[in-house]
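JOB MANIFEST
job_type = single_chain_structure
chain_count = 1
residues = 138
[input]
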Amino acid sequence: MASKGTTTIEMDMYAALEELMGRTIRGTFYPSELRPIEAKTEDAVLTCSNATAGQIQEGRARLNIYVPDINNGGASLVPDKARLMELEAIDEQVLQTLNDSCTAYIFDKFQATATIAVPERNEHFVNIGIHFKLATFL
């Protein structure tokens, strides 16, 4: 098997996660760069950011799950901490789904799952950092 490009790797991962994301998030699951800029829904975006070439390809991807801020009766919107914590807790299920579905790959986390504010927007996102290895030889 030849080495794969980042778009192909991303789409392999996307296909593996599509059912899980459909059951888990309240909005839409997108490949990289396809979430509408004006979106105000709970959506997930998968991005494969880099990969090496060679007999063992190694790289990183990120699954970002966007959660709209909520009104708690104050003057400004606040993070939906309960929902963000629920989504942070699926990181191991994401890895298990990837490892079960994409058997040519090995997936693990490259960092702790984090929640990050989106500047100038009333939303936060859960960031699941995924490290992968892919053997390109048989």
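[summary]
The radius of gyration is 16 Å.
The longest helix spans residues 6-24.
exit_status = 0
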